[in-house]
Amino acid sequence: MKIRNKITLIFTLLAGSVLLVIMVFIYIFSDRYTDYEFYQRLSERANIIAGIHFEKDEVSSEMYAEIQEKYLHKLSEEKETIIPTDSMKRLINNQHIPRNFSPSFLVEILSKKHARFRTGKIYHVGILYFDNQGNFVVIVSAKNRYGQAQLNNLLHVLLIAFFIGMIVIYFIGRLYAGKVLQPMAAITEKAKDISAHNLHLRLDATDNKDEISELAVTFNHMLDRLETAFQLQSNFVNNASHELRNPLTAILGEAEVSLQQERSADDYKKALQIIEKESERLDSLITSLLKLAQAGNTREEVTNMPVRIDELLVELVHEWENTNPDNQIRLDMSRLPEESGWLSVRGDESLLWAAFSNIIGNACKFSNNKEVVVGITGKAGSVTVSVKDQGVGIAEAELQNIAEPFYRGTNARSFEGFGIGLSLAHRIIKLHGGTLTISSVLQKGTEVTVSFPTKV
């Protein structure tokens, strides 16, 4: 069911329920008032009937006839009952109730001098009348045919008004729902036009600050992220293709030149050395791309094992010193925390190794083997690693792009590399819930700070 139909249905049901409650209240109030008014009428007739009956000997026959004509038009099935109070008490005591009146009704007349009750459609009103001839109970009974006809007519009017009102409410609700959802329909139509080829399009967001406007703003933010992701992906593919093509071109070109004619052993050896060098470069690039792809996994897909950051860095620095003896890496462990658990991070050890290896490797490469200081600090809840070099530094304008794949600073293009290492490290650290920040000054050096949440 469409939202417009749901809103219309809910609005119709709610408004109809309120209308029904109001109409029921009107009918019940009218019914109560009709009963009250008829009881009042019967009370007046009881007093008039008693007065005429007991005062008949005190008025002329002409006046009596006039009173009868004016006040005593018969009501529907009207009956009058006049009983002396003495006789009434005896009848009650002997259980001989006249006309099947309720005993409590008769007792109430005697005690309160006025009572009323109803049996089916017959209304009864009784009064205690005091006369010089004695005390009498006067009871008038009748049907409220006129009042019942009015109530039936009111009921018909209310039912017709209810059904007409429900129809009107439905169409008003449908019109109202259409107007409310009109911005949503506009968003839907605009969203249909957005595809991978025109991600620059955006939805029209108003300043109303309502839910639909918030939806449009949120959707636009999502499009911003998607557009950025598509651009990064496009750049990544283009750059990766370019980087892969260079060593392959060199390998194919060298092989083709070598096979064109017979050459000396030294020439073949030189060609194979070039092919080996370019193959190693290609292998390194492919390995980096695979690690970069692995770092794009979700946290749930990454091994979740405790890793001691200090132990990992000690082994990593030791390996760098053995494989690259010209590097000057100093491991500063003077600020280690007292609790060893504060240095433990849950994650994938091989990925963390790759991240720190790339960070330390960049520091050594861009500082021309000047001293690189790797410091470790920790406290309850987090561990921080800083890698500080004395290299060429990074321009401030380029810092925001430095973690993108294949991006290389203008002053770093003379160094070997593909521009993948820092991007790979950034993804791995983010994957482990950590943060990577870079501060740098041109020709003075760069400091990379990595922080991880820890679990004891």
TrEMBL record:
UniProt EC number: 2.7.13.3
Catalytic activity reported: ATP + protein L-histidine = ADP + protein N-phospho-L-histidine
All copies of domain HAMP, residue ranges: 178-231
Enzymatic class: transferase
Compartments where found: Cell membrane
Gene Ontology annotations for the cellular component aspect, listed alphabetically: plasma membrane
Name of the protein: histidine kinase
Phylogenetic placement of the source organism: Bacteria, Pseudomonadati, Bacteroidota, Bacteroidia, Marinilabiliales
